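Protocol step 4 of 5: obtain the predicted structure for the target chain.
Materials: sequence only (see below). No template structures provided, no constraints applied. The aim of this step is simply to have a reference model before the mutagenesis design in step 5. Sequence pasted as it appears in the construct record:
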Amino acid sequence: MTVTHPKGFKASGVAAGLKASGNPDVALVVNDGPDYTAAAVFTGNRVKAAPVLWSQQVLKGGVIRAVVLNSGGANACTGSQGFRDTHATAEHTASVLRSAKKLMIGPGDIAVCSTGLIGELLPMDKLLPGVNAAVKALAADGGPRAAEAIMTTDTVAKNAVAQRDGWSVGGIAKGAGMLAPALATMLVVITTDASADNETLDAALRAATRVTFDRIDADGCMSTNDTVLLLASGASDRQPTLAELTAAVTEVCHDLAQQLIADAEGATKHIAIEVAGAASEADAVQVGRSIAGNNLVKTAFFGNDPNWGRILAAVGTTSAAFEPDRIDVAINGVWVCKNGAAAEDRTKVDLSGRDVKVVVNLREGEMSATIWTTDLSHAYVHENSAYSS
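Step 4 output (structure tokens):
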């Protein structure tokens, strides 16, 4: 149930020595066709890693035959040498695939993704031999190994599939920190054996990411390397409608997004913030993000404290339409706030479990949105204070 579930794809994951741990760190996903259409969305950060800049150029050609990914180094903020290294990675991958697999493929057909510490050049003397090994290890059941190879601070590999009648969508993802709107610190490869042109894939992917990856926020930080790719092989000989394809891609993106937030660094709570009764979807999203990014709210949940006053204070920092004396708030089913004031006894709220559901009703309209976040724990601070040392 992974990126190689759809027909027409092979993948691999190998250890090339980029990680000091010796764990797998180079992954490869290859589309065997007959179609090679693709779409992608990238980080909203103005500081973009070299592989993001490269893959954006590749996407303009409308064809992606393969994706080579590495963990153990972001290749971000590495200047012109970093971009040359990305180009060399694509050149080398194409050359090995032509030689070993007899594929008619060039560097402009290959997307590149990297993740890890920002500001250091990749050890190309390890990465390129890793590509050789990844090509040799390509297999129709190699998706799980590819998912493992792209992990950084992740504690588990992330895979998902949406099965339809005669066709499917599969995916792998990595991400556990710097999870914030405008994607997250994620690398995601999604595949489908459906047949679809570039415009259809782009519309489906953007509709899916808008309500999934763009609505998770662990720590309010945006990465330099975020990349979500959607590749179509057409191997099923099925051509779903845009609505059908969007639904399947959204299902996979939602599954992966929930796995990302569930594995967020140091998290002890998985928090869903539903904003209802908004005048517009934009208002609902803005309010949800304000609550999700509020450190006082996050630390309250870490301490099992249903401090709804902090939630109202976060709502009040937004430009959304609302009247303070009309807002209702529920935490795990207990309406602790009604009409902007105390309601049910807050001691009734059970926060002993991992899952938390917050509902904020603005009572201004019919629109709603859900943002997913986590608490802020000692473990998060410890992990990120020692990340590069």
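Step 4 remarks: The first helix runs from residue 50 to 60. The chain has a mean pLDDT of 95.
Proceed to step 5.
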